[in-house]
């Protein structure tokens, strides 16, 4: 297993998280549409890509990143086209005879839409919509032994885009349209939604929580100690790195929050050291790797945590969020009541927790990842 830091690991570079993968299948098989809930960098995209590359029999997954979409019809057009150009359709029509005609009709209707939109200008009749065609497709696809699962990554960003381009009302109606499609859907197609910013927080701000309450929420936790140990060993082994007994345990204890990304970040520095010095890695190497990971100025990974705040929050909230993070970074730990007087602090703190910046034990807030905390203290505060 290579140490892929930041890109999406595919094939052998993906550390298989059996536990979560099983859970996803179990819930899909029970007919649920899912929302993968996890903080930033938890491995959501990696898991979806794994499902797409290695589907179990009777399943086909279609991965769609909707980050650049800022219009409802554009969203449904993208879904329709990605679906039709995927291998999923071919697999399904082979496995389930009844789906052949449904897809044939769907393909015809989709190809008509473009012509129609031209005619609309001439005839002023109402154009058929991608959304309606998808809805019809979902209603008709009632296959028993084969499922297509459409995975929508960065869905919350799409909602934010629609909101800023077309206003709140359109954003809410887009969420309703998605819900309606899910409600109409028979057994043939299911959805998995996720994204790197918190969907519940966005829905709450739009007062549209009800549009999500049919989704089955699945949390992606950090790796267990056992998983994280195996993960680290596999990477070190790949590079033939030697280390003293107890080094991995010490590293994981310091990391505290065992998300693959943060483990890889530190491991990367340790591999560098081993390459440079050729000496067997010790606990001291872990300490050095930590300092290097947290102090590196041009850290693209962490810069993104900062820039995302301005991109996804209104100006005042972004300012308050930065203020909160600065305080926590400087003090290391801060009592949960500290920001009670700040306007909107409850929502901001909720978002910072859901998105993986902060964590609380009910009494205090601290950075979820000590490395991110150290970086924040040095470069942002
Ligand atoms: N199962 C895994 N095996 C190997 N590396 C992983 C795994 N999961 C996550 N990673 C590492 O963590 C990084 C982030 O993973 P990924 O992009 O899947 O997370 P994400 O939750 O989609 O992040 P974001 O919220 O930023 O979209 C990857 O670039 C990779 O370095
Ligand atoms: Mg992602």
Q: What is the CATH C-level name of the largest domain?
A: Alpha Beta
DSSP strand count: 8
Total helical elements: 17
Residue windows where pLDDT falls under 50 for at least 5 positions: none
Task: Report how far the terminal alpha carbons are from each other.
Answer: 36 Å
Portion in beta strands? 5-15%
Name the CATH architecture of the largest domain.
Answer: 3-Layer(aba) Sandwich
What is Rg? 23 Å
Number of domains: 3
Give a structural overview.
With 381 residues, this protein is an alpha/beta fold. The protein folds into 3 domains: 18-219, Rossmann fold (3-Layer(aba) Sandwich), CATH 3.40.50.300; 225-295, Helicase, Ruva Protein, domain 3 (Orthogonal Bundle); 300-379, Winged helix-like DNA-binding domain superfamily/Winged helix DNA-binding domain (Arc Repressor Mutant, subunit A, Orthogonal Bundle), CATH 1.10.10. It is 58% helix and 9% strand. It has 17 helices and 8 strands. It has helices at residues 18-29, 44-53, 72-85, 87-95, 99-123, 130-140, 155-166, 168-184, 199-205, 225-238, 247-255, 260-277, 283-295, 300-312, 315-331, 345-354, 370-379; strands spanning 34-37, 59-65, 147-153, 189-193, 216-219, 334-335, 358-360, 364-367. The strands form 2 sheets. It has a 5-stranded parallel beta sheet with strand order 2-3-4-1-5, sandwiched between helices. Strands 6-8-7 form a 3-stranded antiparallel beta sheet. Strand 7 and strand 8 (364-367) form a beta hairpin. Helix 12 packs across helix 13 (283-295), helix 14 packs across helix 15 and helix 15 (315-331) packs across helix 17 (370-379). The longest helix is centred in the N-terminal third of the chain and has 25 residues, at 99-123. The radius of gyration is 23 Å and the shape is globular. The model has no long low-confidence stretch (mean pLDDT 92). Residues 4-9, 14-15, 17, 38, 40-46, 196, 260-261, 264 line the site of adenosine-5'-triphosphate (ATP).
